[in-house]
Amino acid sequence: xxxxxxxxxxxxxxxCQKRSVRFTPIRQKVFSIMAEQLGSISAYDLLDKxxxxxxxxxxxxxxxxxxxLLEHGFIHKIESINAYxxxxxxxxxxxxxxxxxxxxxVVIELHDEKIDDAFSEQATSHGFSITNTTLEAHGNCSDxxxxxxx
Length: 150
Prior knowledge:
Blueprint: H1 5-19, H2 25-36, H3 43-50, H4 59-71, E1 75-78, E2 83-86, E3 97-101, E4 107-110, H5 113-125, E5 135-139, H6 142-149
Parallel strand pairs: 3-5
Antiparallel strand pairs: 1-2, 3-4
């Protein structure tokens, strides 16, 4: 099921209402920009897009909005490339692994509990307490692999 950015925004608004948190117009605009993205986007690219309608937007504007969206599970940060993606399962915290294509930049989000459980078991066996898990793997997507062969 492919949701439109309008449907996603309405879903996010409902979650914010249920949680009694403010989904300010700026947060909504940043969310909408991210919902229209096909892949990941950097904070400064987000800022450039936001400035199309909010001329006075500054870096703190974007980072405050991103912090809110991260805190409430609407987006994920891709640490290795310092970018963000909208979470298709937003509003809940869940196991997550990311496959990142180094050629075209596509990001595929996986939710494999077996991988998450195995990782957690290994951490526990080493006396490590995990507070946040995002596994990132870099390589080439199937489209880019096909283009290499052609």
